[in-house]
């Protein structure tokens, strides 16, 4: 079932999905088109169970959808707008200062 969310909740889901480098690699691979977990695992040099766990997260966040073909499951990016936005995001050049992390660290722990 497709539901409508507030913009903030949708962005938070996208942020959660993009917060993990492996999920980013999977999403980038899915920009080339639908794929099966086994193929993604081989292309990305990951275990199939690792890929399946991340696909489950991406699915839970609403970024990918699963299509069942017999006993196989094919995954693809859930929405053309999202695919277009991800294609734009991978082309962004960030102005990052050397040695500056973006992680949420408690103040005074560096």
UniProtKB/TrEMBL annotation:
<dbReference type="InterPro" id="IPR036388">
    <property type="entry name" value="WH-like_DNA-bd_sf"/>
</dbReference>
<dbReference type="GO" id="GO:0046686">
    <property type="term" value="P:response to cadmium ion"/>
</dbReference>
<feature type="domain" description="HTH arsR-type">
    <location>
        <begin position="3"/>
        <end position="97"/>
    </location>
</feature>
<dbReference type="GO" id="GO:0032791">
    <property type="term" value="F:lead ion binding"/>
</dbReference>
<dbReference type="InterPro" id="IPR036390">
    <property type="entry name" value="WH_DNA-bd_sf"/>
</dbReference>
<dbReference type="InterPro" id="IPR001845">
    <property type="entry name" value="HTH_ArsR_DNA-bd_dom"/>
</dbReference>
<dbReference type="GO" id="GO:0010288">
    <property type="term" value="P:response to lead ion"/>
</dbReference>
<dbReference type="GO" id="GO:0003677">
    <property type="term" value="F:DNA binding"/>
</dbReference>
<dbReference type="GO" id="GO:0097063">
    <property type="term" value="F:cadmium ion sensor activity"/>
</dbReference>
<dbReference type="GO" id="GO:0003700">
    <property type="term" value="F:DNA-binding transcription factor activity"/>
</dbReference>
<dbReference type="InterPro" id="IPR011991">
    <property type="entry name" value="ArsR-like_HTH"/>
</dbReference>
<dbReference type="InterPro" id="IPR052543">
    <property type="entry name" value="HTH_Metal-responsive_Reg"/>
</dbReference>
<protein>
    <submittedName>
        <fullName>Transcriptional regulator</fullName>
    </submittedName>
</protein>
<dbReference type="Pfam" id="PF01022">
    <property type="entry name" value="HTH_5"/>
</dbReference>
């Amino acid at each position: 079932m497709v539901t409508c969310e507030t913009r903030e909740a949708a962005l938070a889901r996208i942020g959660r999905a993009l917060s993990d480098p492996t999920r980013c690699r999977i999403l980038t691979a899915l920009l080339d088109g639908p794929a099966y977990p086994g193929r993604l695992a081989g292309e990305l040099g990951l275990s199939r169970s690792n890929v399946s766990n991340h696909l489950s997260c991406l699915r839970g966040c609403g970024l990918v959808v699963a299509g069942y073909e017999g006993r196989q499951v094919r995954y693809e990016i859930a929405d053309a707008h999202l695919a277009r936005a991800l294609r734009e995001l991978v082309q962004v050049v960030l102005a990052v200062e050397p040695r500056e992390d973006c992680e949420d660290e408690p103040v005074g722990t560096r």
